[in-house]
């Protein structure tokens, strides 16, 4: 397979995941790493033979066919736009932006772009297997969904103010999953939430524990269960209740070793966090992006999906603020 | 142990469960079976050496120390009152009555009575084990709950009109479980529900699929997941999310046999219905009632619990009717 | 169903299990309890309305159709013979006798008798389900077997001398299971064993830890894994490896409650001993015996099965003594 | 970390696994690929920037610090010797050679060599976790072991004649595992085996189904369960029975998706073969080899381990031939 050159924008937490996956993909070559922080790009450049560059230089290189936008959230939209307008295929970490208005305003400029939005759960092999069986209809028609998304530990104090809050930063993954699995748009959103984990989060006007209930026009119901601190690992589950049975994607445990004593059967804990749990999902996501870059596939998650999830996240916020169900 | 005579009122579905459990208990003797339907009492009388009798005769017998009220729902309150006023210890199937006003009006007459209400889930050994660990605090402070109560198959058409509807007939179990486990009263109730299983249920102005979200004053959240027809068995689960870990009571599968092939690992289905799933709970419930009858224990579930659960069920109905959250 | 009177011989550990099961069976009535120890019969008599009696009296009662032989092992054969010659249907705890010669000599006198030998594992619902699937051939032809039979804790010191030793007392269950599942007689037996649990067992010339390897004429292989003290509960498992898949009957855990923490997923231990693990098997065994008593079934385990298992147990002993494989 | 140059000898099935793992290791660089078959080295060279070379050239390069011997089994010893004598650190696929005499004769020439033998199971994360707990003694003293090693499907017809037979090719992994876990050498070996999978294997004087029973001087027992064709995937399990409990490393299933219906709970099959099952073990093995190459660790599996496993494999063969237990 011919290798197409890729520029990575942002060598932070997500760039450290997507950059290597692209570099190791047989159809991509990591050519540039763009990061304003001095030295941040170096380790990736050293390891994969890439070059540290400015955004302008990377986008100006006609050999660069694709860009991975992994910068800070407030730069996603600016960088994605620049890359799209330079004619590159773009993978963009979620969310597009925290400001729905900005996202709506930029919408037209993404028409026809090869733009893949980073809702990684859609690429998790277990979740995909569940979706395929759902679509195959073996257990009948989908009626209700239960989505569990519990982070292991509360974010550091400085994270909250720029995060967009629980719903735009975290629940947004589940809102996208819900749309994908329900096959229908939610028409009503109700959210109850509390600050039980860290009072500092409450002082910053955010919540850390929430339950959201979505209803669709045909009567399907979906519960989203969120917490910022599970206390037991990264709990990521889907239960899909259908007319003739139930499909479940369970947690992944650290290993298969079990200790039996007269008191208990003790097995490994569930995986501790997203890098382990979604390792294969991140790879599959880049595999799909490579297919997009090579013109072999249309992006499975696009700009419109980013808008829809953001609108639902705002509906959660509005429901929480007003104490009523909201029509998004 | 001395055996105390018991009268069973109602030889229907629940009477067929509680009657034998009482008859086989070493501290109870099944003396009378009361049922207006000719012949209904006979099989139980034959099997356990009991006598078919009228309610009056059974209550007039001073040797009868305890009464099991297993009549039709609309007779629970009348029969329980008669038994209490005859000085008997009373076990009464849930709900006390479908009409909250009647239940409230009769309240004073149950003051001081030995009255055990049949919320069987509180006696399930797995649920009790979970409760004990919750109380022991090994996983920290309880924050949120997830209760799953899915019936295997929709009730027969004639059942709905007299059932009291999904919330008073079915969800009421979960509302009681929630109160028991949360250790706090819900202060806000939101319910979303649909008729997805059987349109006839909808025509009778009931729903068959619901999600209810309870919030307490301290910010604890509880989701209740209900359906009248799971399509895969009797799904009965509790998940209790705490500050330092999670406690889960899972489904019981039919056996431990597993078949491994290149395509799948196939294990037994979950238990099909309440008689199998709560077999041990029903026994433990009668064990506890025997302790009450013998003066060795106070009833763990009383008249006030019946009122509280009924009030919450009415709040679910009101939330569904108005589309808003309700303060019960 | 007409109830047929039963006499229980022996009110010890096994009599306390089989007696109540017979008493509660709708087709049997526990009429006599025979036990030479003063007072031993009383609790069962009181609970089920039976009468303490001598063996002679019980066997002389023409209304007694069936006898449960639960006396000490050295009395099994004498009591079974007396009951058979009195024309009763006989359920006899295993083993028939520890002395193979005696068992062979008495063989002819059991011709035509309604005699059920107490190999309880054949009645375990999970093991029966596994056998049915094996016979149905869904996973192809059986090739090899793995049987695990680990007792939770070493027997009390006084037990060993009269027990018959590990193979005749304990492994004999697995030797019968192997014959039942293999559908072929073992033609070669090799046993390796040690005394690892309790040196006192070794001083009494017995072993407490053994592995036995059976081969059949068609080349099927079976491993039997035994220990007198598992250290973690009563480990009872079957794995049947077939040409197109594997069937497994796993351990039963105490409940379904699980605790998740960052360090582990902790579930209930396996059941601690045979009364819990084989509770349903013992009931099913008496159900089958009732069918035999009522003339509705032929005994599924007979005198010849007792001989065959005993012969294999002696082959294990001979293999251990000689260090070679033995043709039984 | 400085990268040390590596030469890969053999670009076949195992070379395709170890070569990329070395190439992607931050402390190694894949410099040469040696394979006599024209073109066989090319894909690896292309992908990782290595050079196709003759053995002589690769060994003559003083920059090459390490060699991976992944040639055909009959070349392992020759290639390993050449590399050792050229002063390179050597990773060698198992077995060293099928001919024990040759291996013994060459022994002295490996004295002091940095030589790691490819018994991959010792590097499996789950097996290592089990070993650590065993060594930590949490479940007491090890008494018995059960090792399951079932290949998914019979090897192609041409494989058997040069394979060394079931014991030297396949069981040898378990013999090494047994030595590692028992912490004691087996002093007695008994093997029963059959040809049940493919009559052609029998015609070639080999077996495809075997059970081996090892005993140690202290009385520990170990069962090894082998088949060439499981019919349900790659069954790889360890059970370690200790004085106070049991440790188990179970199979890995393909994903966590489960389907519940009224008839069954259906989960994913176990992994189909060694590339998936031991993917992480192969990586950890190369990680360890890199530590050896960099002088940070002594090889965990050495030449003497290869001899010991081969001697045990010959004891299995002798036991099968003679029908008796063998002292290796």
UniProtKB/TrEMBL annotation, chains A, B, C, D:
Residues 127-248 form the GFO/IDH/MocA-like oxidoreductase domain. It holds the Pfam family GFO_IDH_MocA_C3. The keyword Nucleotidyltransferase does not apply. Signal peptide: none annotated. It comes from the Bacteria. Keywords: Oxidoreductase. Residues 5-106 form the Gfo/Idh/MocA-like oxidoreductase N-terminal domain. One of its GO terms (molecular function) is inositol 2-dehydrogenase (NAD+) activity. Its EC number is 1.1.1.18. The keyword Oxidoreductase applies. InterPro entries: Gfo/Idh/MocA-like_OxRdtase_N (IPR000683), GFO_IDH_MocA-like_dom (IPR055170), Myo_inos_IolG (IPR030827), NAD(P)-bd_dom_sf (IPR036291). Belongs to the Gfo/Idh/MocA family. This is Inositol 2-dehydrogenase. The gene is iolG.
């Amino acid at each position: 397979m011919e290798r197409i050159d890729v520029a990575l924008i942002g060598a932070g937490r997500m760039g450290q995941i997507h950059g290597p996956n692209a570099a190791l993909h047989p159809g991509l070559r990591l050519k540039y790493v763009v990061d304003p922080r001095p030295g941040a790009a170096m380790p990736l450049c050293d390891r994969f033979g890439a070059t540290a560059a400015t955004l302008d230089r990377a986008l100006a290189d006609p050999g660069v066919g694709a860009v991975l936008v992994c910068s800070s959230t407030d730069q996603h939209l600016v960088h994605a736009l620049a890359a799209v307008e330079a004619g590159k295929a773009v993978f963009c970490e979620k969310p597009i932006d925290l400001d729905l208005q900005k996202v709506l305003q930029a919408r037209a400029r993404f028409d026809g772009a090869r733009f893949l939005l980073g809702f990684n759960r859609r690429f998790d092999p277990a979740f995909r297997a569940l979706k395929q069986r759902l679509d195959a209809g073996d257990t009948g028609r989908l009626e209700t969904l239960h989505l569990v998304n519990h982070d292991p530990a509360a974010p550091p104090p400085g994270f909250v103010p720029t995060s967009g809050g629980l719903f735009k930063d975290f629940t947004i993954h589940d809102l996208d999953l819900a749309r994908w699995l329900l096959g229908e748009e939610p028409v009503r959103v109700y959210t109850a939430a509390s600050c039980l984990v860290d009072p500092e989060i409450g002082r910053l006007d955010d919540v850390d524990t929430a339950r959201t209930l979505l209803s669709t026009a045909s009567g399907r119901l979906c519960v989203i269960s969120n917490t910022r601190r599970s206390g037991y690992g990264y709990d990521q589950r889907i239960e899909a209740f259908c007319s003739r049975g139930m499909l479940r994607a369970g947690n992944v445990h650290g290993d298969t070793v079990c200790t039996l004593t007269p008191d208990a059967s003790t097995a490994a804990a569930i995986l501790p966090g997203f890098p382990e749990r979604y390792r294969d999902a991140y790879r599959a996501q880049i595999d799909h992006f490579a297919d997009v870059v090579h013109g072999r596939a249309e992006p499975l998650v696009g700009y419109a999906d980013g808008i829809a999830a953001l609108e639902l996240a705002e509906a959660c916020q509005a429901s929480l603020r007003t104490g009523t169900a909201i029509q998004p």
